[in-house]
């Protein structure tokens, strides 16, 4: 997931001018916590509005400059109160939220109940075109502020009410017992008045309430974040800041890391996974994460959306030798997927090991039969689209295609179709401009089975880029969200997942560990369950 041109000399010039630190690993000092570290990154797809960011690179920054009602524990991913003093409900539909006192934005403005209500109303409004607006769907009045068709008939969500500076209420359109646990996701962040008073200026230099502030950003080069010394939270930064350097090739980032020109990378390329333990020793990171890689389909394309194509999709899934690919390419950093969620959820959380069954089991004979029974590959060929600026995608796409081609006895049956950058890839994907299967990795927003299913497969959900739609699936998700008994809710979500399986809405490939490496200047480096470095904990020097 990388999305811009890397120009090291330009990046160093900017850093030298704006940040009192070295460019890369040869920095000075650090004993007083003032030194800045450098970390690999990719340009985000969209401006850093909380409700307009639904990809990893932008999400990293939001997690550094914002804090919401909840925060996910960097070890367990469990939702814990951050700005919320309490979230109370008598019925899982009406919630009273009370804020802790003493929180401000980095520009000095006090964080109040209005900061949340205004931000959520903005994010939900159809006219603002926020990509993650769907996350506000269950708040009463969403159908008026963001109708499926036509123009909006309200400017605010009727389910949001400010009581006083530290209290607001939320009324949902239906019971949603897990609603409080979703509130650590960045889409629910508060926003300062500056966001609304001078929106263009805010977009150029976002102001938040997190442990870091943005000093500067040069697209295609780097973003400079510095520690906010007046940050009131208990997770203060233990370093002076983070310089996020844009790389279009993770191999280049890895080379810079080994050369001492970069302090941290959280994306060890597949080609280096065999070497990383030896190259880095104890500075190599390989941790389970809530990430799954899949192949999605463009159901808006009449060829892939027609009846009977589920057999072709199942046949393609059975033609993929997951065990061989993960062993030869990924060096124990991937595990063949047997469902559409993640093992990090645990059994109680909804992990359904083996749910995919035979459809995720390599069976060349049955795979070929199913593809033929389904009418064959549309146009006689499958082109799997992926972004080329993340080196590992080409390797696995080529490996998947080789597996499919061997099964079908045709070396042109499956080919990779690269798009240059992550940003361009996402733009084409979200605008439904693809004509064949495409890679669809998912990193959880919050540790609930609901998050692995609803955003991706619910009709018109924000990340349902292929536009798959199934009434039974939608109905089961609605029932699960309304269930106040957690165990019963999980079972309903698993029934919904069975619908995804039966239609092979997307092909699950493998669960992904978070990988990374860091230089000798750093200590206390780890990845959270979302595969993102816990930047605030890192010490430099």
Number of strands: 20
Q: Any idea what the shape is?
A: globular
Structural class: alpha+beta
Gyration radius over CA: 23 Å
Provide mean pLDDT, rounded.
91
Span from first to last CA?
A: 29 Å
List the total number of helices.
19
Task: Describe the main β-sheet briefly.
Answer: 6 strands, antiparallel
Give the helix proportion (percent range). 25-40%
Portion of residues in beta strands equals: 15-25%
Uncertain segments: 1-29
Question: Which secondary structure elements does this structure contain, and how are they paired or packed?
Answer:
Blueprint: H1 8-18, E1 36-41, H2 56-65, E2 70-72, E3 79-81, E4 84-88, E5 94-99, H3 113-124, H4 142-145, E6 160-164, E7 167-171, H5 179-182, H6 193-197, H7 199-204, E8 212-218, E9 222-227, E10 241-246, H8 250-259, E11 264-265, H9 276-280, E12 284-296, H10 302-305, H11 309-318, H12 322-330, E13 334-336, H13 346-349, H14 364-373, E14 382-387, H15 391-408, E15 414-419, H16 422-430, E16 438-439, E17 442-443, H17 449-457, H18 471-482, H19 486-503, E18 507-518, E19 522-523, E20 539-540
Parallel strand pairs: 1-10, 14-15
Antiparallel strand pairs: 2-3, 4-5, 5-7, 6-7, 8-9, 9-10, 11-18, 12-16, 12-17, 12-18, 13-18, 19-20
Tags for this model:
541 residues; alpha+beta; four-stranded mixed β-sheet; 20 strands; 31% helix; 19% strand; globular; disordered N terminus
Characterization of the model:
It is built from 19 helices and 20 strands. It has helices at residues 8-18, 56-65, 113-124, 142-145, 179-182, 193-197, 199-204, 250-259, 276-280, 302-305, 309-318, 322-330, 346-349, 364-373, 391-408, 422-430, 449-457, 471-482, 486-503; strands spanning 36-41, 70-72, 79-81, 84-88, 94-99, 160-164, 167-171, 212-218, 222-227, 241-246, 264-265, 284-296, 334-336, 382-387, 414-419, 438-439, 442-443, 507-518, 522-523, 539-540. The strands form 6 sheets. Strands 11, 12, 13, 16, 17 and 18 form a 6-stranded antiparallel beta sheet that branches. Strands 1-10-9-8 form a 4-stranded mixed beta sheet, with helices on both faces. A 4-stranded antiparallel beta sheet has the order 4-5-7-6, with helices on one face. Helix 15 links the parallel strand 14 and strand 15 (414-419). The longest helix is centred in the C-terminal third of the chain and has 18 residues, at 391-408.
């Amino acid at each position: 997931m990388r999305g811009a041109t890397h120009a090291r000399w330009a990046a160093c010039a900017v850093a030298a001018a704006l940040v009192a630190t070295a460019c890369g690993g040869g920095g000075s000092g650090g004993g007083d916590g003032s030194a800045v570290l450098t970390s690999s990154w990719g340009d985000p797809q969209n401006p850093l509005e909380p409700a307009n960011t639904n990809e990893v690179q932008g999400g990293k920054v939001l997690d550094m400059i914002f804090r919401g009602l909840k925060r996910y524990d960097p070890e367990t991913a469990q939702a814990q109160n951050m700005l919320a003093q309490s979230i109370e409900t008598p019925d899982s539909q009406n919630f009273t939220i009370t804020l802790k006192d003493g929180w401000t934005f980095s520009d000095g403005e006090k964080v109040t109940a209005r900061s949340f209500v205004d931000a959520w109303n903005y994010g939900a409004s159809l006219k603002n075109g926020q990509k993650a607006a769907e996350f506000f769907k269950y708040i009463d009045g969403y159908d008026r502020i963001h109708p499926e068709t036509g123009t909006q008939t309200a400017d605010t969500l009727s389910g949001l009410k400010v009581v006083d500076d530290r209290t607001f209420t939320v009324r949902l359109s239906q019971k949603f017992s897990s609603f409080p646990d979703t509130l650590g996701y960045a889409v629910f962040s508060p926003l300062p008045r500056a966001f609304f008073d001078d929106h263009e200026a805010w977009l150029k230099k976002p102001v938040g309430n997190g442990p870091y502030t943005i000093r500067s950003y040069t697209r295609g080069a780097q973003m400079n974040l510095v520690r906010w010394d007046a940050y009131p939270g208990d997770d203060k930064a233990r370093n002076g800041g983070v310089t996020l350097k844009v790389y279009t090739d993770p191999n280049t980032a890895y080379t810079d890391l080994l050369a001492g020109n970069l302090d941290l990378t959280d994306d060890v390329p597949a080609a280096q996974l065999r070497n990383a333990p030896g190259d880095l020793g104890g500075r190599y990171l390989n941790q389970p994460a809530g990430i799954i890689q899949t192949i999605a389909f463009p159901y808006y394309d009449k060829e892939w959306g027609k009846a009977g194509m589920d057999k072709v999709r199942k046949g393609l899934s059975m033609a993929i030798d997951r065990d061989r690919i993960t062993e030869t390419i990924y060096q124990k950093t991937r595990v063949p997927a047997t469902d559409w969620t993640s093992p990090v959820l645990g059994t109680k959380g909804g992990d359904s090991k083996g749910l995919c069954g035979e459809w995720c089991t390599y069976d060349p004979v049955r795979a070929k039969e199913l593809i033929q029974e389904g009418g064959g590959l549309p146009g006689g060929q499958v082109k799997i689209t992926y972004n080329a600026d993340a080196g590992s995608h080409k390797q696995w796409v080529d490996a998947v295609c080789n597996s499919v081609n061997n099964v079908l006895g045709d070396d042109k049956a499956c080919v990779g179709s690269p798009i240059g950058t992550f940003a361009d890839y996402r733009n084409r994907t979200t605008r439904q401009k693809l004509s064949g299967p495409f890679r669809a990795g998912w990193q959880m927003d919050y540790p609930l089975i609901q998050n692995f299913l609803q955003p991706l497969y619910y009709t018109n959900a924000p990340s349902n880029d292929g536009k798959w739609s199934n009434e039974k699936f939608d109905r089961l998700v609605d029932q699960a969200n309304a269930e106040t008994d957690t165990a019963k809710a999980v079972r309903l979500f698993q029934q919904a997942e069975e619908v995804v399986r039966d239609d092979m809405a997307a092909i699950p490939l493998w669960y992904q560990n978070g990988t990374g490496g860091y230089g000798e200047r750093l200590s206390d480096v780890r990845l959270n369950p979302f595969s993102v470095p816990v930047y605030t904990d890192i010490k430099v020097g």
